[in-house]
Specification:
- This protein is an alpha/beta fold.
- 46% of the residues lie in helices and 18% in strands.
- The strands form 3 sheets. A 7-stranded mixed beta sheet has the order 11-8-7-6-12-13-14. The chain has a 5-stranded mixed beta sheet with strand order 1-2-4-3-5.
- A hairpin with a 2-residue loop joins strand 7 and strand 8.
- It is globular.
- The protein starts with a helix and ends with a helix.
- Bound molecules: nicotinamide-adenine-dinucleotide (NAD).
């Protein structure tokens, strides 16, 4: 079993490449093979180290990356992750998936990703700002509205994006070729709304995931109302996915975060649960049903137990490699909707396929985030402000179109939804 996300991403690419080559005329095989080989590696890897003065006066050196995978369809685009386990291979994988995702969603961006090896929970707010500024300053030369546009990912948020823009502006202010102010703003997306962010960006990934699932359910002949769901990861993506599913009448029977989860057969109210977690700092103790939180209604579970619950919809919304050869045989869910990037290893994919458990892949399911990032970028460039209703309506159209394309491709090639998404994307990338 591989826990190297980049090797897993390569396996996924190989699986799609095999289908493409099988359907390519003999005379064109060599050319297509060569074109496909371009997708095997990132165009550019930027590795940086930068010093930060910590609150105790000591200087600490941090390490980070920006990987620019492919810009065939537009400027590189992808989030910035702050996590103690960030590796170059993880960032390479995430930037590759961004390349596929932008093509699937139909947004005019390429794929990129950034990461800093840091546990932000160990930092004060001042140190977090200093780490962000250190990283932003280190990669300022290679980013820009028409070059590479970062965004939030795990442990990064709108405030961090605001610091990023500010630091970037300082770096480019003295350049001879002046960059226009709206273009400076468009250097990152996921900014606070008052600082050039888009309404609806905060909710976008979860909202997009819901629209994808809604469109997929229609294609599969499933009604969402009354179904049960378990959601791993109760951060930005997991929370909003839970909220929109709950509003559509899906019972959210389990949610979890890095410290563990809760299982409530009656179904939790995601908003009350999030408020409760905010107050106490923990999910355990937050058994919030209807309009009350009451510990007698459920029990605590581990993240591993959550993945094996007997539910209709399993939503991994935390990190990579959680569904593996070890636990895929025990998954009881009727379908998996990947809101995290890379939660299913290729070995687990194979097991789930054999067990007839469909997987709605990350490159489709969580593409709402980058889609609204594109809307934010467009609003910045054109000095426009769209309402939240406009944003959600456009998002719905993009997600519906992307889902229909993936499902039609799946039908045409009789393959998995993941390979179908890759096929639809690669068609645009060759
Ligand atoms: P976040 O930092 O807001 O939340 C992450 C959540 O995962 C937290 O609740 C955290 O406690 C939990 N978590 C961390 N380690 C865990 C573990 N080992 N087991 C269980 N839970 C764990 O991050 P996010 O932005 O919600 O991102 C979640 C996933 O969605 C990531 O894979 C990310 O790449 C992907 N994603 C995010 C966006 C976006 O717009 N933020 C877009 C597309 C994809």
């Amino acid at each position: 079993m591989s826990t190297n996300a980049f090797l897993n991403a390569q396996t996924q690419l190989e699986q799609a490449s095999t289908v493409i080559l099988k359907n390519t005329k003999e005379s064109k095989q060599k050319k297509v093979e060569q074109q496909l080989s371009v997708l095997k590696n990132p165009a550019r890897i930027v590795a940086v180290t930068f010093p930060v003065t910590m609150d105790d006066g000591n200087l600490k050196i941090f390490e980070g990356f920006r990987v620019q995978y492919n810009d065939k369809l537009g400027p590189y685009k992808g989030g910035i992750r702050f996590h103690q386990n960030v590796t170059l291979d993880e960032v390479k994988a995430l930037s590759f998936w961004m390349t596929i995702k932008c093509a699937v969603a139909g947004v005019p961006f390429g794929g990129g990703k950034g990461g800093v090896i840091v546990d932000p929970k160990q930092l004060s707010q001042t140190e977090l700002e200093a780490v962000t500024r250190g990283y932003a300053g280190s990669i300022a030369d290679v980013v820009g509205a028409y070059k590479d546009v970062p965004a939030p990912d795990v442990n990064t948020n709108p405030t961090i994006m605001e610091w990023f823009v500010d630091e970037y502006e300082k770096k480019v202010k003295n350049q001879k070729s002046k960059i226009k102010s709206n273009e400076r703003l468009a250097v990152v997306t996921g900014k606070p709304v008052k600082k050039g962010g888009s309404l609806g960006r905060e909710q976008a990934t979860g909202k997009g995931g819901f629209f994808v699932l809604e469109a997929a359910a229609k294609k599969m002949g499933i009604t969402l109302k009354g179904k049960t769901a378990a959601i791993q990861g109760f951060g930005n993506v997991g929370f909003y996915m839970a909220k929109y599913l709950y509003e559509a009448g899906v019972k959210i029977v389990a949610v979890s975060d890095s410290k563990g989860g809760i299982y409530v057969p009656e179904g939790v109210n995601p908003e009350l649960t999030a408020e409760c977690k905010q107050k106490s700092g923990y999910l355990s103790g937050c058994y919030c049903v209807g309009s009350v939180c009451d510990v007698s209604r459920g029990k605590t579970i581990t993240n591993e137990e959550l993945l094996k619950l007997d539910v209709d919809i399993l939503v991994p919304a935390a990190l990579e490699n959680v569904l593996t050869a070890q636990n895929a045989t025990e998954v009881k869910a009727k379908m998996v909707v990947e809101m995290a990037n890379g939660p299913t290893t290729p070995e687990a994919d194979e097991i789930l396929l054999k067990r007839n458990i469909p997987v709605i892949p990350d490159v489709l399911a969580n593409s709402g985030g980058v889609t609204v990032s594109y809307f934010e970028w467009e609003q910045n460039i054109n000095a426009e402000h769209w309402t939240q209703e406009q944003v959600f309506e456009k998002l719905k159209q993009y997600m519906k179109k992307a889902t229909n394309t993936v499902f039609n491709t799946q039908k045409k090639y009789q393959t998995t939804y993941r390979t179908a998404a890759f096929l639809a994307a690669i068609e645009k990338l060759l």
